[in-house]
Amino acid sequence: MAHIGVKSAFLLGAICLALGASPAAAKGREFLGGFRDWDAFVERRDKGEKNCYMISVPKETAPKSVKRGEIYIIITHWPQAKIRNQVNVVVGYPFKKDSVATARIDKRSFRLFTDGDRAWAYDDKQDQEMTAAMKKGSKIVVEGESVRGTKTSDRYSLNGFSAALNAITKACY
What we know:
The protein is of the alpha+beta class. Helix content is 24%, strand content 40%. The chain has one domain: Immunoglobulin-like.
């Protein structure tokens, strides 16, 4: 088995929370590989169920002076629920109530709904459009506003995105 990258080791606890995993479920986690700026995993659950996901942390965050929790983007497959390419961004602070976040993938923009410290695509169609754009793109920039009115921007690299997506798709389908 390949060695888990530093960013993956740091985020394993956050991933369990993001995926609603209990510590017992986390025992079935397998590292599929590091693909440049993305790491891929499969998590096996009871009764043969599994989910697959890939995760990355931002290359740049702004403003740098703002104290924030963990910041990452995760793409998940939930085969039993027939969910593929679900996009979720965690920003490390609670979003302003009823605000939207924006994800810019190269020149294309997507509006994301927010809930707590997370932002999501509005529906499956948008998940698929975002994932397709990420496969072709070079970066994604996520912008949002905290409950305190602080506007933030996080830039992620899309290097290795397609390879990580291929790995989780192969493991889950």
